[in-house]
Amino acid sequence: MEVPQNIQHQLTQFQQLQQQAQAISMQKQTVEVQIQETQKALEELKKADDEADVYKSAGNLLVKVDKTEINTELEDKVETLKLREKTISRQEERVMSKLQEMQASLQEAMQGAGITPGM
């Protein structure tokens, strides 16, 4: 049985949206890992003595930095990453909602055409 063109078009859009959802999920995981790593660095920085030498990586180099300045830099980075995480989460919610709508619409269209959905 040949799948009607309008349903093929919907299937293509659905698959593209699934790929977009996967990409968003991967972005979210990356940001979550960056938040964890930055928070871990902040914890280690708090354990260090105030007079301890602190270095940060800059490409292939380690550069000596002021503990207070790097602490502020890391806190700002966590704040920025958390905002990015919230934005990605909202984007993920919208895409997942759209996917559910499209899946229901596709199932209805396929049943109307006498096709058994295999999603």
Description:
This protein has 119 residues and is mainly alpha-helical. The chain is 75% helix and 8% strand. The protein has two helices and two strands, in the order αββα. The protein has a two-stranded antiparallel ribbon with strand order 1-2. A hairpin with a 2-residue loop joins strand 1 (54-58) and strand 2. It is rod-shaped, with a radius of gyration of 24 Å. The protein starts with a helix and ends in a 7-residue tail after the last helix. The model has no long low-confidence stretch (mean pLDDT 95).
Oligomeric state, counting identical vs distinct chains: single chain
Strand content: 5-15%
Cα shape = rod-shaped
Task: Write the H/E string, N to C.
Answer: HEEH
